[in-house]
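**Polypeptide and fold**
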Amino acid sequence: MNQPDTPPPAPLNPAPLAPFPASLDAGIAALEGMLRVALALAQAARPIDLAGLDQRVGRVCAQALDLPPAEGRALRPRLAGLLAGIEALAAQLATAAGDG
């Protein structure tokens, strides 16, 4: 007896679609990592090379501005996290500069 052709069952936990373009997601992740490392170095009073940070932030901001409004609003928490990381690094560097 032949079974009728039926589609396979849907996966239990389908992989979520990336909410943002892959290049934007990668750019944000790279900045998050760069800021974590820079903050750890600053806290350890180690030298930090921030060359290119402003360009990377500019690219992420430009890509964010190109998003449709709903996606842009959804991105706000991650951008706010980047801003908090930058502010924490700036505060640490200011503190270190005041110690010398």
User: Anything to note?
Assistant: Residues 27 and 90 are 20 Å apart (CA to CA). The first helix runs from residue 22 to 43. The two ends are 85 Å apart (CA to CA). DSSP finds three helices and no strands in the chain.
